[in-house]
Design goal:
Blueprint lengths: L4 H28 L1 H12 E6 L6 E2 L5 E13 L8 H19 L4 H13 L5 E7 L1 H7 L9 H4 L1 E10 L7 H4 L10 H5 L1 H4 L4 E7 L5 E3 L13 E4 L3 H18 L3 E8 L5 E9 L5 E2 L4 H4 L9 H10 L8 E3 L4 E4 L2 E4 L8 E3 H6 L3 H12 L3 H10 L17 E2 L11 H6 L4 E2 L2 H12 L4 E2 L4 E6 L2 E5 L4 E3 L5 H17 L13 E8 L8 E2 L2 E2 L1 E9 L6 E8 L8 H4 L1 H14 L24 E2 H10 L4 E3 L6 E6 L4 E5 L17 H9 L4 E5 L4 E4 L12 E6 L1
Parallel strand pairs: 2-8, 28-30, 31-33
Antiparallel strand pairs: 1-6, 2-3, 3-4, 3-5, 6-7, 8-19, 9-10, 9-26, 10-11, 12-15, 13-14, 16-17, 18-21, 19-20, 22-25, 23-24, 25-26, 27-29, 29-30, 32-33
Length: about 700
């Protein structure tokens, strides 16, 4: 073949081969490998994704809700739903846009319409219309044009998730805690997450543009199993008293931070725990769980452990005497100062403890253990003071009891340890030790949860955990109890003496060491004031510790700073526990000649209660189903509830109980925020004003 013809043939052959190769490649992909690529494409656009379970609630011991998961919704719309034709869509889009704008008040009607129309033109199937709305708003949205047709005819899709809420705000906030991804678990939320979390479900979802995932049908969905509830040991009323008492003293003494823990002696159940710290602005809040996590030198509260060792080893009795000297004593040329200028002189062991004599206690320990300090340390170890309590809540500080083999051990270590220095303890660890004395030697692990529950029924009850059935012999315990009572009756804690019941405990005033500057800063010492004890002393029911760190208004002694907090809590608990009080002698003290004050509320309930207690009532007009009441000298007047006639106006709930007030307000579309306890004394929106959509009203109780 001559001429250029062969070149054309070569081009034709190459093109033919290339075409055949392409055809073969298409055939291979579509037929031979078709199923493989189809599965791979499906894996990129659809997959099974987790559905979070509803987290269980956290309740107080008295039934109040401490933490719960409230439903929150994202409103989405399939603007290209199969049944949503152009005629239907454009006939109602203006009305829908108007309703959205009028209810949420975040965009104009035009902005909403443009968003929906543009999304339809783009072919979107999962448009986010509004995020983070509550249950009442969700119910309202269901009534809007188009949306009232539902998902398949109107394109309405709700994406539900939950948000954690604490109805009591900052009350026990750090102890309740939180549980978040990639964050170390905090408090009960973290500690009991395996109980609260439940079991996740699974469902098939399709990935849309923008990384949005949309559920694909329900037939293959595995529903999640909701978490269990936990019923804590916390009593909300006592918790409130503890936090207020602590806050008042922190403010009074301009302290840096402090904590309070109240515990049941026989069970180890923590009834109240408060932790407050001063921020840079001067306000106090719960930012850290000091009771659980802060290890410090406890000071004089640990004199109890020192004398427990000497008593249990048989070296002393509480009636023995010790020469406490003239107020200053030297150990290896290092002075130790006593709690009284001029010293206490020769006193009994019991009196040395009552007046918190540093020299008296240190001389006792030095006399009997200086030749064998390890025996003293081993005795403290036998009390389990060197081991963590193993609390379920994360973050427990580690205790530290100096040992003769440690590099830091010196000639004065033994005497310093006898008065609570050269050792580290957390408030909770000290309290557990004192609680063991109150509990006749039985050391318990502090507990925060009483029950697991599901759908209102108890599933599991958590029993007290014994860490040591007898930290020392019974005779030692009895002698220690006498000394602890003596502290309050005639010692450093005399300002806590109570006319109605006896308190036993020990004051503590410790200098706080800082890693940077030791015990002194700008020529001033920094102190920690504390009081730890139990009550009633003759039949211990509760143990309590109070620690106030760095009081800075010239008063820093444990009895004056921490003592009043302990006293206020003890008084409140004693007054609120009926078993502490003798029954009334009179057979019927119900009315005692006076008519009880009545709340306004649901008419049938009011009449039932009045009839049950033989309270005379007089109807003033036609009442029902709601009524107002007016208490007179010998009767209760029942009056009509005028607000009932005007369902679009804010009702008057002043004088009602909380449940009735919430029922009325929420049924009129108002979102309620509650403050305080008791009956309603004030409402933020005056009665008679027209109700606005999605409006919040605050009611104060008293």
């Amino acid at each position: 073949m001559k001429g250029p013809a062969w070149k054309y043939y070569m081009v034709f052959i190459v093109a033919l081969v290339a075409g055949l190769a392409i055809i073969f490649g298409i055939f291979k992909i579509q037929v031979i490998e078709g199923s493989h690529w189809k599965n791979k494409a499906a894996a990129l656009t659809t997959k099974y994704r987790k559905i979070k379970a509803v987290r269980g609630n956290i309740y107080s011991a008295d039934g109040n809700l401490l933490a719960t998961s409230i439903p929150v919704y994202n409103v989405r719309m399939d603007v290209n739903a199969d049944a949503l034709t152009d005629d239907v869509f454009y006939a109602k889009i203006d009305s829908l846009a108007y309703c959205l704008s009028n209810y949420f008040k975040d965009k104009s009607q035009r902005a909403y319409k443009n968003m929906l129309v543009s999304a339809r033109k783009r072919g979107e199937r999962y448009l986010l219309v509004k995020s983070n709305i509550g249950y009442l708003a969700q119910q309202k949205v269901k009534t809007f044009p188009l949306f009232r047709k539902g998902r398949y005819k109107g394109g309405l899709i709700f994406e539900k998730f939950t948000r954690r809420k604490k109805p009591f705000g900052i009350l026990a906030e750090r102890t309740i805690g939180y549980e978040m991804e990639n964050v170390h678990p905090v408090g009960l939320e973290g500690a009991y997450s395996d109980v609260l979390a439940g079991t996740e479900g699974m469902r098939l979802e399709r990935r849309l543009s923008g990384g949005v995932w949309m559920p694909v049908g329900d037939e293959n969905q595995i529903d999640p199993k909701d978490g269990m509830d936990i019923i804590t040991t916390i009593d909300v009323n006592i918790q409130d008293v503890a936090e207020k008492a602590l806050l008042d003293q922190l403010r009074k003494h301009d302290a840096d931070h402090g904590c309070v823990v109240l515990m049941e002696v026989k069970t180890g159940n923590v009834v109240a725990i408060a932790n407050l710290a001063r921020s840079s602005t001067g306000a106090y809040s719960e930012s850290y769980n000091y009771a659980v996590g802060e290890s410090t030198e406890p000071g004089s509260t640990m004199k109890l452990a020192a004398l427990m060792a000497a008593l249990d080893d048989g070296h002393i009795s509480i009636d023995d005497t010790v020469d406490a000297g003239n107020g200053v004593h030297y150990y290896y040329n290092v002075p130790m100062h006593d709690t009284k200028d001029g010293g206490h002189g020769e006193i009994s062991v019991k009196r040395a403890f009552e007046v918190s004599s540093n020299i008296g206690v240190s001389k006792i320990i030095s006399k009997h253990y200086s030749k064998n300090p390890q025996a003293f340390v081993d005795k403290l170890y036998s009390f389990r003071l060197n081991e963590p309590l193993g609390l379920k809540i994360a973050g427990e500080g580690r205790p530290k009891i100096q040992h003769p083999s440690d590099k830091a051990w010196s000639g004065i270590s033994l005497t310093q340890m006898s008065i609570g220095y050269e050792m580290l303890m957390t408030p909770m660890q000290i309290l557990a030790f004192y609680n063991a004395v109150a509990n006749n030697g039985v050391l318990l692990r502090p507990n925060f949860v009483k029950h697991y529950a599901k759908n209102g029924k108890i599933v599991k009850t958590l029993k007290p955990e014994i860490l040591n059935p007898a930290i020392c012999n019974r005779k030692t315990i009895e002698q220690l109890k006498v000394m602890l009572e003596g502290v309050v009756e005639e010692g450093t804690g005399a300002n806590l003496k109570n006319a109605h019941f006896k308190i036993a405990g020990k004051t503590g005033t410790a200098r706080i060491a800082n890693a940077s500057y030791g015990y002194k800063y700008t020529s001033k010492y920094s102190y920690q004031a504390s009081f730890c004890g139990y009550f009633p002393a003759d039949n211990p029911m509760y143990s309590c510790i109070v620690v106030v760190n760095a009081p800075s208004n010239a008063v820093y002694y444990g009895n004056l700073v921490a003592g009043p907090i302990f006293r206020e809590i003890a008084d409140k608990v004693f007054a609120s526990q009926i078993e502490h009080h003798s029954p009334l002698n009179a057979e019927d003290q119900l009315l005692a000649g006076n008519v009880p004050v009545s709340l306004s509320g649901y008419y049938n309930d009011l009449v039932t209660v009045f009839n049950e207690f033989n309270v005379r009532t007089v109807n003033k007009g036609t009442a029902g189903p709601w009524a107002r009441t007016s208490t007179k000298d010998s009767e209760v007047e029942i009056l009509p509830y005028e607000s009932e006639k005007y369902p679009k106006l804010v009702p008057n709930v002043v004088g009602m109980g909380l449940m009735d007030a919430i029922y009325l307000l929420e049924n009129r579309g108002l979102q309620v925020v509650v403050s305080g306890r008791g009956m309603v004394k004030k409402q933020s929106i005056p009665p008679g004003r027209r109700i606005r959509a999605n409006e919040t009203i605050k009611i104060d109780l008293s």
